[in-house]
């Protein structure tokens, strides 16, 4: 069973309770939990790709950590970043590699 997500409520629960609930209950509680269509591993690969392509590096860092927990290997993450460098941009790849080297250091 996946760990229950509480980041929305922890960070925005009082300020934006509806957004927090949608984040925790719908995005992570329903969409991410639906393993019969895509595995958590594959969802992590897709999510990291989308975040890198948009240049959303704070969120990419958090999702790279989740990706590692979901079984995405250092080799797979390096291949993902290398592949996307041609579509999302070389500078974004450099930034993403900086995050990946730290997250996959051990």
From TrEMBL:
PANTHER family: 4-CARBOXYMUCONOLACTONE DECARBOXYLASE FAMILY PROTEIN (PTHR33570), BLL4600 PROTEIN (PTHR33570:SF9)
A Pfam entry, by short name: CMD
Protein name per UniProt: 4-carboxymuconolactone decarboxylase
Gene Ontology molecular function, alphabetical: peroxiredoxin activity
Signal sequence coordinates: none
Species annotation: Secundilactobacillus pentosiphilus
Domain Carboxymuconolactone decarboxylase-like: 17-101
């Amino acid at each position: 069973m996946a760990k229950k997500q509480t980041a929305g409520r922890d960070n925005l629960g009082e300020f934006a309770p509806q957004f927090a609930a949608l984040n925790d209950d719908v995005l992570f509680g329903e969409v991410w939990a639906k393993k019969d269509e895509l595995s958590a591993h594959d969802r992590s690969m897709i999510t990291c790709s989308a975040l890198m392509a948009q240049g959303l590096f704070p969120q990419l860092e958090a999702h790279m950590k989740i990706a590692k927990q979901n079984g995405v290997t250092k080799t797979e993450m390096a291949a993902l970043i290398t592949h996307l460098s041609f579509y999302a941009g070389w500078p974004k790849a450099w930034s993403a590699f900086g995050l990946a080297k730290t997250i996959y250091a051990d």
